[in-house]
Sequence to fold (350 residues):
Amino acid sequence: MNLLVTGGCGFIGANFIRFLIDRPDFSGRIINVDCLTYAGNPENLADIEKTHPDRYVFVQADIREPDQMARVFDDYAIDTVCHFAAESHVDRSIVSPDDFIQTNIVGTFNLLEIARNRQGRIKRFHHISTDEVYGSLGHDGYFTETTPYQPSSPYSASKAASDHLVRAYHTTYGLPVTLSNCSNNYGPYQFPEKLIPLMILNAMEGKSLPVYGDGKNIRDWLYVEDHCAAIWEIICRGKEGETYNLGGNCEMENIGLVTMICDLIDAKTGKTSGKPRRELITYVTDRPGHDRRYAIDANKIRTGLGWEPKTAIETGISATIDWYMTHQDWVSRVNTGEYREWIRRQYQAG
Ligand code: NAD
Ligand code: TYD
Fold:
């Protein structure tokens, strides 16, 4: 397998490559294409690049540029695609939606066109998407694979558009696609703009913890390694043309989650300035168009492919806190943008 992973220097893509590279049921080669936006950090895979020079390749390229991408497909005889690359943060999409349209919609379209023009060779095109395409739930019910799309933010609208394109390329051209729509992920290497790493780092430093609105919005949290296992299962055994919903079966109000993070850090390191970290929580102005509740019905992949999440939330959050505590260098390089210098030395010096 010559597997193209797009966006492999981001949070889930990097975890996926780390998850896959040494698995006994994967003997292929990974070609990681990433244009290195603020969220892309090849340092996340620097060790893999050293230990697997024959099985892992990083190519700095942009999915918005069809010529660059066509060259990658041909140079590396790509036969399988796992497409993560995206602008991924809702708050950024509200302030500045343009990149979301260009990368998430036009970039996905470019990859589909290139795959369509190499049909015989492409065995699988797996598209990674989000449960946010379904919009917001009330108190009851779950998102299933047949829930109508009703995206609220420019981010989720751009992901919805890309999902429709991927399905259309299956229906119209017979491209062998699969899709997965996943709930909120957490774990190592997540850029500290998303709720969990932001709260962990602020709480560790005794800074205020900004909770939007009344803090009662609900998300269904999934540990990133469980997401990676589901993706690999779908690539190997998922049915062509099908969509699989993925979730952690773990609904939590934001305020409950932030409180849990505070208490776990207190237990690990002691209180901050003699006070419990819960006192750092500050309610701030709500996000515009803030979806109230997401919850996934993952029955299709559970019964069809035997996948279910393995990591309990307390275990996963505790492991994530430990990871950020023991990767202070990574955090400070990401926070100061210093990793840009590392990238320049590594990839641009020659
Ligand atoms: P991320 O923002 O951490 O990483 C995105 C990666 O894509 C970065 O490395 C970035 O440099 C790269 N990228 C962006 N634009 C690019 C372009 N034009 N060309 C090439 N590379 C580009 O995102 P993530 O959290 O790892 O999310 C990965 C995928 O999973 C996205 O498609 C996202 O919609 C989806 N998803 C994320 C979550 C979540 O909770 N994080 C949940 C469900 C689905
Ligand atoms: P986020 O991690 O941005 O993921 P998404 O918007 O894709 O679900 O946010 C998760 C939840 O946390 C969401 O309800 C918004 C909320 N939130 C805060 O309350 N404060 C914050 O500082 C951030 C980043 C998010």
